[in-house]
Amino acid sequence: MEVALGLTLLLYGLSDLLFRHLGLLAYARGSRKTPLVALTFDDGPSERTEALLALLHRHGVKATFFLTGEKARARPDLVERIREEGHQVEDHGLWHEPWRLLLPWLEWRHMAAGKGRYYRPPHGLHTPFTRLFAWVLKKRIALWDTEGKDWLDLPPEDLTERLLFYLRPGSVVLLHDGPERTLRLLELALPRMLALGYRPVTLDELNPLPLSPRLALIRGLQGLEERYNRRHGVRRAGLGPFHLFRLEKKPFPGPALPGLPPGTPAFELHLESERAMELSTPEAIRAFRNSLKEVAKALLEDPEVRLVYGASPLALGAELFGFKTAPLPPWPRLVSSLAGAFFLWLYRGELPKKGRFLARLTYLEREEVLRRYPPSTPASPPPAPGAPGSPPP
Q1: How far is CA 153 from CA 157, 159, 181, in A?
Q2: Is residue 268 part of a domain?
Q3: How does residue 214 score in pLDDT terms, banded at 50, 70 and 90?
Q4: Residue 81 contacts by C-beta under 8 Å, 6 or more apart in sequence?
Q5: Rounded to an integer, what distance in angstroms lies between the CA atom of residue 214 and that of residue 339?
Q6: CB–CB of 324/361 below 8 Å?
Q7: Percent of the chain with pLDDT over 90
């Protein structure tokens, strides 16, 4: 009995890890090559559905609503209104009570009651039966890759900054039809999203693809990236769809340079690999140059920073943009080389070419960044109050 119980718990845990946390084979993102994003709203219809529809109409935006069966049956007028305004309607199950899903016969009833090609489990919860039931019912499991966090009791201004920080081309954004803060969040975020070049569309227009094991691993690692950003005060250099750098202020670890004492404040460049992963070489070069203009803006905002740098097997390629290179000490070189090989496989599905495995330090001094990449006119309105380009704690 104890063995059977243990195996059952293990099976439930593995199902949730693989299919909810990683999202394996779920439809959770679109192509990273174009700045289309899908806004999705769970739990409706609600008393705020009409206000939400008015807000979306005002900005000319279409979205996807995952409706809960019991609520939809109570307000068929709102369901019809959502459809009439050109939004996509999909299935969020019959109830929003996760405990019921732990019992297979109730989960089947929950999933079979609703219509729609896409089904989103409440809270993304998966049991060992969820994918089997979806296959029998011919439903696609829809998850997300960006959370609006509108269920948290945080100021909408903070939620807006966080959403814009993590929004990417192809993102499926999780929001909710019900909380009052969702309306305020969208009032703040939508104009800025549009100004930055994002175009919100329905899930069908986004055309998401099921997550392969490699893409599922990328999704699973997002939480680690968020924790690193908060802990180290990492900021974005520009919030546009293809601005490719995050910045971490820290002492320069490289060789002594004329006029720069040891420990000079610098920006370490973190490449936004997920934004660049599907770009062709010419597209990536163009995005790299434009992104360096955003780095130059950050330098102007912080006169203390004297240079920018990174450590990567791609250091030699950075010479194309004026960067200088230097060798790394043995241990940092090994760590950076292994990390570079892993991320190359993770984001591009490739392995390092012969002779390009070892990482090097690459850097460019402040004056040279400003000379080569003078900041362009901002493409978006000033950010809301708070640290610009940084996610909230």
Answers
A1: 12, 10, 9
A2: yes
A3: very high
A4: 49, 50, 53
A5: 16
A6: no
A7: 82
Query: Poorest-confidence range of 34-38, 170-174, 208-212, 351-355?
Result: 351-355
pLDDT of residue 387: 42
- pTM for the predicted model, two decimal places: 0.92
265 Cβ partners below 8 Å, 6+ apart?
Answer: 249, 250, 251, 252, 304, 305, 306
| 51 phi and psi angles, rounded to 5 deg | -65, -35
pLDDT in tens, 226-267: 999 999 999 999 999 999 999 999 999 988 888 888 889 999
Of 244, 239, 59, 272, whose CA–CA distance to 167 is shortest?
Answer: 239
Give the C-alpha separation, 336 to 326, whole Å. 14
CATH code, domain carrying 189: 3.20.20.370
Q: How many Cβ atoms sit within 10 Å of the Cβ of residue 218?
A: 21
Given the structure tokens 């010419």, which residue do they identify?
282
How many CA atoms, within 13 angstroms, populate the side-chain half-sphere of residue 199? 9
Q: Where are the alpha helices (DSSP H) in 85-212?
A: 104-112, 130-137, 156-166, 180-196, 203-206
First vs last Cα of the chain: how many Å apart? 45
Hey, what are 349's tokens? 């599905």
pLDDT higher than threshold 60 for residue 388: no
Give residue-wise pLDDT tens across range 53-100. Answer: 999 999 999 999 999 999 999 999 999 999 999 999 999 999 888 777
In terms of domains, do 33 and 8 share one? yes
43 and 163, same structural domain? Answer: yes
The answer to the question of residue 379 being in a domain is no
Encoded amino acid at 158, one letter: D
Both 312 and 338 in a single domain? yes
* CA dist list (Å): 362 to 56, 311, 320, 330: 45, 6, 11, 16
- 125 and 193 co-located in one domain: yes
Q: Is residue 176 a contact partner of residue 45, using CB atoms and an 8 Å limit?
A: no
Write out the residue range of the structural domain in which residue 126 sits: 2-211
pLDDT over 70, % of the chain: 95
pLDDT at 391: 53
| 338: amino acid identity, one letter | L
